[in-house]
Amino acid sequence: MKKLFGIDVEPADGSAPVWNADVRFYRIKDSSGEPIAYFYFDPYVHPAEKRGGAWMDEVVARRRVLSDDKMSVRLPIVHIVCNQMPPVGDKPSLMTFHEVKTIFHEFGHALQHMLTKQDEGLVSGIRGIEWDAIELPSQFMENWCYHRDTLMSMAKHYEIAECLPEDIYQKLLAARTFRAGSISLIHVSFSRLIKYKNDAGRKQ
Fold this sequence. Notes:
By secondary structure, the protein is of the alpha+beta class. It has a domain at 2-129: Collagenase (Catalytic Domain) (3-Layer(aba) Sandwich). It is built from six helices and seven strands; from the N terminus they run αβββββββααααα. It has helices at 2-5, 97-114, 136-142, 148-152, 166-176, 180-203, and strands at 8-11, 24-29, 35-44, 55-60, 63-67, 70-74, 77-84. The strands form two sheets. The protein has a five-stranded mixed beta sheet, with helices on one face. Strands 5-6 form a two-stranded antiparallel sheet. A hairpin with a 2-residue loop joins strand 5 (63-67) and strand 6. Helix 2 (97-114) packs across helix 3 (136-142). The protein is globular.
């Protein structure tokens, strides 16, 4: 995060209430050490408490607020929710590649909301983003899952610290382009839908 965005992410557990003991709370600081945002991370599956899948959403947006007759800025807060398997006994939670990519994806959405410098709450962060652009930061972050140095820095055997074998890495790269055309068509359909909606609005 520091190399790409000039920010530091640090635990802030205990400084905000959480809805489950597994939920972590984090603070984001800029290069000067000033807090600029916060986020909750709820990583594990809880079938009785939440639906499946993964998502990111805002808790509050960055905006100007009036406090004690003075204008100040309320910092953005988001939550990132996933459904990976929790640790069992002494064995840690071992993530699949898909789960790693999902966290990078949702964190991309979160960064768009948390790193905004817009103080107008109606359009800050993820608010007001067109459908054909909403996935840009999340899919940008997914690219780092395929970046050799980034992936090898974390894709290691949890007991012997052996890195991901080269042949497996090459298979991940090959699988990345499987049905890539179909995925592109999804985004084309988003842009066509927006155009249709805008055209229909002008005719009314």
